[in-house]
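FW: tagging you since you asked about this chain on Friday. Here's the raw sequence from the shared folder, copied in full. Didn't touch anything.
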Amino acid sequence: MIEEQGIVIAVSSGYARVRTQRQSACGHCEVSGACGTSLLERFFARRPVELTALNPVEAVVGDRVAVGISEQGLLKAAVAAYLVPVLALICGAVVGDAYGGDHREAMSLLGAVVGLVLALLWLRGYSVVSARNPGRRPRVLRRLAPNSITTPGPDVAPGVSDSL
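HL: got it, structure written out here
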């Protein structure tokens, strides 16, 4: 289970709207400020993410919670969102090139566009069907203490709390 912390901002009929802060890997490696990831993070300021999660623990507005999603569900969603469109684009280009005759380049380009559009239409339907599957939805795993610190910041040694 992949977990993230957040704050419940709304509750309705078995679901909770949770606001989380995007986490970065920066600060955990030796080059912490000199890589492309840190540059992108500074350029695109970190904004909170809001998601709707199943609420089996009956968290209420204002609760700090741990939200989780299964690794398998995340992997399937990533393959559907990234790999399928790229493969469809490549397959469309290959088919267009193979049957393009005298206009192979134009047909290859057209085939790539058609393949990508078909993959995106499939992805739309897949996401609608996936959203109905409760096993693929994020869920509130547990309530957290209001001032809990579960991961130390970059300036705090592991196992040391800064709440002294």
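FW: The longest helix spans residues 71-98.
HL: agreed, and Strands lie at 2-12, 15-21, 48-54, 64-69, 139-144.
FW: great, closing this out.
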